[in-house]
């Protein structure tokens, strides 16, 4: 008798309960409002606080510091489920979790005690400040500076495309403390009420309209030296480590949005009558559904493999996270874009929600490292081996 093959990445009973909890919250508190929030460009901080009460403000932060103590493999399930309701809000929760994880992982006891209780509850929100105008993917070339002045640091510079800016209580800012390339970058905890900190206008964006995106402007911002995260010169390494998980999360958000588009398209084809019957009689359309499903499932398998590698601190985790980010964000966007075509003219209308998912998912191919940078990371690992 042949042994039964194990199911790869099978969802455990605990994970099923987690998915059900997240689904119930997303289906009742997010999905019914997603289109309205998008149209009104409303950032629902009250709903984020509700998510925090359910443990979504510190998903992989240790329970000792108010987090949920879950794994990266658990987290991708959470973000995919949230994004089925609204990729915009799911993506912001991912960014917030990246900030909270950095405080928990690299902070000292005093920093954790000060920030983690309110941030894991999402009573206080966080923003990740790496990108700068004119720098883009070349993050190691950033020019924001932090000058030591006695028992303080003085920060000056501008950060670009910062999610949550103007609403966050904490900004993790990567700034230059020495002119030694990436080794001269340090990370700082900058409170939202710091003197000299200001914000640009809310950017007019293609998607992600329900979360603010602004410049973060620092003009002689003074913070205590105790607000240095880790040691001087460690900031770039910290930022890159945080991005590994961020790439998984944003990939999961893409899968959630794409899965929602696929399910809505299948339902539409069953209901829509044309040429004497339902559109499901048109094989070309059914083939398109199959392509969407296969791309999403393949990307989901790779994403879960990468999450497992990150949990295990596997030597190839950076490569796998880059692969998974590219494949998942491409698959999600392709599914959403195909859904518009399958809906015909109705897919172009805001009320059907297809165009919103497509607008939201397009930026996922750019942020957390562009997909071109993901290919560069993978290619370089081949050449270095």
Give a verbal description of the structure.
Helix 9 runs antiparallel to helix 11 (371-384). The chain has 11 helices and 10 strands. The chain is globular, with a radius of gyration of 21 Å. Residues 1-6 have low confidence and may be disordered. A 4-stranded mixed β-sheet has the order 1-4-5-8. It is α+β, with helices and mostly antiparallel strands. Strand 4 and strand 5 form a beta hairpin.
Helix content: 40-55%
Give the biggest sheet. Answer: 4 strands, mixed
**CA-atom Rg in angstroms:** 21 Å
Low-confidence stretches: 1-6
- Provide a count of the helices: 11
Q: Helices and strands, in N-to-C order?
A: HHHHHHEEEEEEEEHEEHHHH
**SS class:** alpha+beta
Features:
385 residues, alpha+beta, 4-stranded mixed β-sheet, 4-stranded antiparallel β-sheet, 11 helices, 10 strands, disordered N terminus
Write a compact overview of the structure shown.
With 385 residues, the chain is of the alpha+beta class.
Give the helices and strands, then pairings:
Elements: H1 13-30, H2 34-40, H3 45-53, H4 72-85, H5 87-106, H6 109-120, E1 126-129, E2 145-149, E3 152-163, E4 170-176, E5 185-191, E6 197-199, E7 213-224, E8 228-229, H7 235-271, E9 273-274, E10 277-278, H8 283-311, H9 317-343, H10 354-362, H11 371-384
Parallel strand pairs: 1-4
Antiparallel strand pairs: 2-3, 3-7, 4-5, 5-8, 6-7, 9-10
Helix pairs in contact: 1-4, 4-5, 4-7, 5-6, 5-7, 7-8, 7-9, 7-10, 8-9, 9-10, 9-11
């Amino acid at each position: 008798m042949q042994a039964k093959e194990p199911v790869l990445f099978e969802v455990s009973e605990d994970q099923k309960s987690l998915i059900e909890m997240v689904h119930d919250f997303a289906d009742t508190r997010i999905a019914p409002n997603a289109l309205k929030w998008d149209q009104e460009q409303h950032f629902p901080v009250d709903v984020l606080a509700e998510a925090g009460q359910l443990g979504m403000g510190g998903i992989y932060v240790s329970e000792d510091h108010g987090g949920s103590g879950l794994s990266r493999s658990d987290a991708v399930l959470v973000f995919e489920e949230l994004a089925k309701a609204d990729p915009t809000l799911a993506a912001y929760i991912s960014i917030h979790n990246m900030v909270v994880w950095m405080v928990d992982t690299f902070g000292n006891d005093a920093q954790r005690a000060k920030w983690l209780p309110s941030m894991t509850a999402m009573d206080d929100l966080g923003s990740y400040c790496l990108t700068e105008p004119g720098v883009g993917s070349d993050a190691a070339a950033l020019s924001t500076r932090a000058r030591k002045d006695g028992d303080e640091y003085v920060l000056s510079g501008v950060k670009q495309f910062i999610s949550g800016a103007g609403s966050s209580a904490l900004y993790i800012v990567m700034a230059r403390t020495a002119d030694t390339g990436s080794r001269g970058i340090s990370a700082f905890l900058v409170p939202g009420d710091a003197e000299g900190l200001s914000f640009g206008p809310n950017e007019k964006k293609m998607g992600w309209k329900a979360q603010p995106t602004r410049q973060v402007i620092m003009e002689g911002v003074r913070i205590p030296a105790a607000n240095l995260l880790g040691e001087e010169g460690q900031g770039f390494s910290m930022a890159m480590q945080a991005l590994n998980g961020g790439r998984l999360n944003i990939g999961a958000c893409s899968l959630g949005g794409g899965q929602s588009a696929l399910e809505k398209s299948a339902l539409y084809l069953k209901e829509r009558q044309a040429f004497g019957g339902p559109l499901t009689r048109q094989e070309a359309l059914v083939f398109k559904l199959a392509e969407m499903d296969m791309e999403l499932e393949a990307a989901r398998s790779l994403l879960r493999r990468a999450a497992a590698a990150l949990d295990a601190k596997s030597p190839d985790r950076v490569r796998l996270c880059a692969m998974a980010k590219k494949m998942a964000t491409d698959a999600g966007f392709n599914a959403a874009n195909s859904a518009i075509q399958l809906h015909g003219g109705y897919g172009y209308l805001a009320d059907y929600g297809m165009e919103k998912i497509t607008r939201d998912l397009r930026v996922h191919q750019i942020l957390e490292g562009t997909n071109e940078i993901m290919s560069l990371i993978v290619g370089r690992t081949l050449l270095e081996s």
